[in-house]
Write a structure and sequence with these properties.
Chains A, B: Homodimer. Within each dimer, one monomer is responsible for RNA recognition and catalysis, while the other monomer binds to the replacement base PreQ1. Chains A, B: The active site is at residues 93, 267. Chains A, B: InterPro entries: ArchSynthase1/Queuine_TRR, TGT, TGT-like_sf, tRNA_ribo_trans-like. Two copies of one chain form a homodimer. By secondary structure, chain A is an alpha/beta fold. Chain A folds into two domains: 6-267, Alpha-Beta Barrel (TIM Barrel), CATH 3.20.20; 275-375, no CATH class. Chain A has 15 helices and 16 strands. In chain A, strand 15 and strand 16 (285-288) form a beta hairpin. The longest helix of chain A is centred in the C-terminal third of the chain and has 27 residues, at 327-353. The first copy, chain A, is globular and about 60 Å long. Chain A binds chain B through residues 39-41, 43-46, 68-69, 73, 76-78, 83-85, 276, 295-296, 298, 312-314, 316-317, 320-321, 323-324, 326-328, 330-332, and chain B through 39-41, 43-46, 68-69, 73, 76-78, 83-85, 276, 295-296, 298, 312-314, 316-317, 320-321, 323-324, 326-328, 330-332.
Chain lengths: 376, 376
Amino acid sequence: MTEQFSFRLLAKDGAARRGLVSTPRGDIRTPAFMPVGTAATVKAMFPQDVRATGADIVLGNVYHLMLRPGAERVAALGGLHKFMNWPHPILTDSGGFQVMSLSKLRKLNEEGVAFQSHIDGSRHMLTPERSMEIQRLLDSDIHMQFDECVRLPCTDAEAERAMRLSLRWAERSRKAFGDAKGKALFGIVQGGASEPLRIESAKALAGMDFHGLAIGGLAVGEPQDVMLAMLDIVIPHLPEEKPRYLMGVGTPDDIVQSVLRGVDMFDCVMPTRAGRHGLAYTRFGRVNLRNARHADDAAPLDEGAACASARDYSRAYLHHLVKAQEILGMMLLTEINVAYYQELMAGLREAIEQGRLADFIAETKEGWARGEAKAL
Amino acid sequence: MTEQFSFRLLAKDGAARRGLVSTPRGDIRTPAFMPVGTAATVKAMFPQDVRATGADIVLGNVYHLMLRPGAERVAALGGLHKFMNWPHPILTDSGGFQVMSLSKLRKLNEEGVAFQSHIDGSRHMLTPERSMEIQRLLDSDIHMQFDECVRLPCTDAEAERAMRLSLRWAERSRKAFGDAKGKALFGIVQGGASEPLRIESAKALAGMDFHGLAIGGLAVGEPQDVMLAMLDIVIPHLPEEKPRYLMGVGTPDDIVQSVLRGVDMFDCVMPTRAGRHGLAYTRFGRVNLRNARHADDAAPLDEGAACASARDYSRAYLHHLVKAQEILGMMLLTEINVAYYQELMAGLREAIEQGRLADFIAETKEGWARGEAKAL
């Protein structure tokens, strides 16, 4: 354990990095996947089971938590870790993304964003300073700067306006964050799908005193090649000695491709959301358990999986639970998916250490392409 | 382990009994509470967590399972235990109760009940013989006779007709059950709220070759005193050497009162259903977590509980999860409730062994009356 936030690069394989983020609440092995705990819960999972999948850190959403149960309330109850019974590191987003995608009657200006809650219509204001205050009240270990995220595709003019606003908000976020002992603050690269805007944003943020840099405004609907092209453009301008976090990404293949390009941290609702909708992620690709062909299939999803839930229940049973809309179906598939994501990250980390990332990726893709385990 | 079903009376305290049901799949300590696993899952619980609460046996519903996924399918997949990953004893009801309460366009005659599925409208027929066949296909350890259960209040004529039909179906069920090695078949006492009908039913069933006797047609809307009066009437006519199962009961107090009168086995959806609706059962009574007074309460539901989920999460957090309709709220409260029911049964068993049941019940009621732990 450390008293300060730090990042150490342990190994490289090409551009891919194996690292260790240290925080007073524990270490985060990178490349890392952070399960999303939107409303102070990784949906449909007990926190001890999230931990058991190998997760070192989870994410909390400022937008959701400020509206319900409220940041001041969480602080009075001892902070988000105690509240959700997760004593390990937590990263909070800044609210910037979700205030634009979820809230009603938004009004954005230089100061921040005024909006109405999607839950009860109550009025709120988010600014860089208030976002920092909320993240401090939640007592998260890694704070994110307040930013404006535009959807792709968008005009370059729109991307430029939002990027420059986000840079000014980055400065205000950094100032408001101050010298929070043991905590980290990450800046967020914006700039839409424009090469010069992305480079300008990355360079400006690299020159500020952040503990890590995130790449935002991707995985917002664009094709994978656009996202990867942006990574190729941005990453050379990010400081080698700071962790790099690609926000909201993604599919297992998105993650593999991004690790290959030097990304260290990821978060995405995909494994948890898919688990609530009858979809499983496995070493043999994605399996839709709604499909009637599973109804009589006694085989488990993956009898070689590390996760017992992927071994101990037949596809027929999972199909039955999904069809009957049983909560246990969501519980099992969510756990199986989060465990697979963590298994993939562990594999990537080991492969980078051993200098055999290319082979590992080839083997991983072979598994996905081969389709379900039964086809063996 | 035993190769045959058996029941041993270990201790008595007044009319209350401490016993042991033995089956080839494991023992059931009585008085026992059986969590309900309607559609091959105790809703919102992993089977290993059901076990960890202290449950020796769960219940499966013939009506639900015959419609989805289908008894022949479960048999082809290796039986219900393997299907739901619960290797311990399972009791199945006969379908008689739910076909009357859930299905559409029922037509009942001497032969059985023709009905349409509430799921997809498909047509089915349940008879004593088909019910036995389905329970055999599911491979349950304790089968229930096929019966007709009338709702209370009802006329004596209606109760009499249904009771006599149920007796004829009891004979057909017994014959169809045959000599299933290691399995048990229980008869079901009917007769509405009529003393002579209940006694006639109990005597007739006591004279047949059943492994245990159940009391059906109670907990169907009548006040507790009507239910207890029926127990006082029926139980003296049940054989001492066979286990007694009160179907569909009940609240913690219903269970305590029934154990006091000599009942050995119970099942009820109450702890699981309540858990999905924001209600907790604890040593300090029932707690409605929806209530806003919990919003800032840092205290757990019961810091002295055996169940970690009752100790490790604040009421404020549980309130938040319930308000936000988070699945984890249902998971935690279901587990807490099932664990409390099992803790209550363990307490009853120990008290009977020690001949201090009256004291235990007085202490238990004192806890419920005292209200929530915070009031201490």
